[in-house]
Inositol 2-dehydrogenase
Amino acid sequence: MAITVGVIGTGAIGADHARRITQTLTGAEVIALTDVNLEQAETVKNTLKLNATVYADGHELIANSGVDAVLVTSWGATHEEYVLAAIKAGKYVFCEKPLATTAQGCQNIVDAEMAAGKRLVQVGFMRPYDSGYKMLKQAIDSGEIGTPLMIHAAHRNQSVGKNYNTPMAIHDTLIHELDVFRWLLDDEYVSTQVVFPRKTTFAHDQLADPQIVLLETKKGVRIDVEVFVNCQYGYDIQCAVVGEQGIANLPEPQAITMRKNAQLGNALLTDWKDRFIDSYDVELQDFFDGISANKLTGPSSWNGLAAAIASDACVTAQQSGQIEKINLPERPELYR
Ligand SMILES: NC(=O)C1=CN([C@@H]2O[C@H](COP(=O)(O)OP(=O)(O)OC[C@H]3O[C@@H](n4cnc5c(N)ncnc54)[C@H](O)[C@@H]3O)[C@@H](O)[C@H]2O)C=CC1
Ligand SMILES: O=C1[C@@H](O)[C@H](O)[C@@H](O)[C@H](O)[C@H]1O
């Protein structure tokens, strides 16, 4: 029997996840939808020809739809309340990143899940499912480049909307790096500092763009990440791990090289949807397979909390201009 799913928030990624569940993945079916913009939920239902009910809001969906699993794909600030409600109702929940926009919000979720006594939550950190990042991790773990010493990384978006502000560069964008570096290095952060280069004229008043985030880990690895969300030229994710004996670079997405109009080159991607299309498929299939096996193994609430603790420190560092400490508590048994 298919796992029944309710989607809360049917915007860009909610609609895309509903599409992949319906058209690409196996073992799950979307039977419930909601969005603060109900028309948007109706549109997704009709476009994908879903045999689904549109609920008035997320809490009604959780309480009355009878679904096995909930996908929380609404705006970041609304995640915590829906994830807590889903846990309370004993439902599995896949929550897009960030798990919550603050560490306290994530801690509330970890506490609720521990009280439930089993893992119910998977966070939408898809990069560990990406074939390029997996190759990078393999290169590190095999010892090919020796002990990692530094990471130089960049997270560039073509442009962002007017509602995107300076802290979002951390808790909405950098949060992917904050998760994936812990996984790549098998290490934890101890401190951060944020510095601001000259501002691009393409950023609006509420946004300092670009930003450079500096991180230090327990093992002494130094990391610099450029977050530049109005870079204009494309969607570009870079990661170079410098080891004692070599450098491992995240592979570029596959693209045809063309000779045309007296130029040699290839097109760059412009959208996260295309850049990580395969990893979104694999992460969600893993979530459903975990439900079938009654054992979730993907990115956990603990991963959400660890990233959020670092994220909070980075947001503080944006304001203070100082080096801020990052302290992760002891990992509970449930997440070992
Ligand atoms: N893993 C990844 O690479 C990506 C993750 N995301 C995450 O997914 C979430 C949604 O992002 P997008 O789809 O890009 O945004 P979006 O703005 O396109 O869609 C969000 C939808 O949620 C709805 N919504 C807002 N508050 C709601 C509430 N209280 N109840 C029900 N619906 C509500 C909005 O009306 C909108 O339709 C964010 O947390 C974002 O960080 C987004 C893009 C990529
Ligand atoms: O998660 C995502 C968006 O929400 C976020 O706003 C973008 O900066 C990221 O590149 C994308 O992967």
